[in-house]
Design goal:
Blueprint: E1 2-8, H1 20-23, H2 28-41, E2 44-50, H3 54-64, E3 70-74, H4 83-92, E4 95-100, E5 122-125, H5 130-137
Length: 140
């Protein structure tokens, strides 16, 4: 059975509350339930974590080494700025899939700068919470 770590970054825990016109009404708790149901249906063991702190996200990535077959990561706003998260992903040799709920390429110009995409096997953009379910399929 494959093991996948789902890492969510800043403000993802506020889903259903923050900017519902952009991120939708699904709550973070509901997102985690959906991910776990999809994982179970695909015989994948999944662990979901969230942090608003860059260092904690890096800790999660580093602890995935030799423990998980893959990572699904939505680094939130760190997607545009964190070379440290990028380097952490590059250093562990674990397949990573990046997910963005909104279409970051067609929002504010700074959001088009995705600094971790080049170290991820795939980047899924603008598919809402279904992007996480698509990302899980990468680990079947």
């Amino acid at each position: 059975m494959k093991k996948v770590l789902v890492i969510n970054g800043p403000s993802i825990n506020m889903l259903g509350i923050r900017e519902v016109d952009i991120y939708g009404k699904t709550t973070y708790k509901d997102l985690i339930k959906l991910i776990k149901l999809e994982a179970k249906a695909n015989n994948i063991k999944v662990k979901c974590v969230q942090s608003n702190y860059e260092g904690k996200i890096i800790d999660y990535i580093q602890k995935a080494y030799n423990k998980f077959d893959g990572i699904i990561i939505n680094p939130g706003a760190y997607s545009h700025t964190s070379y440290a998260i990028r380097d952490a992903i590059a250093s562990i040799n674990v397949k990573a899939v990046e997910v963005h709920i909104s279409d970051v390429l067609n929002r504010e110009p700074f959001r088009a700068n995705l600094v971790i995409s080049d170290v991820c096997a795939k980047t899924i953009i603008g598919k809402g919470i279904n992007g996480y379910l698509e990302a899980l399929k990468e680990f079947k």
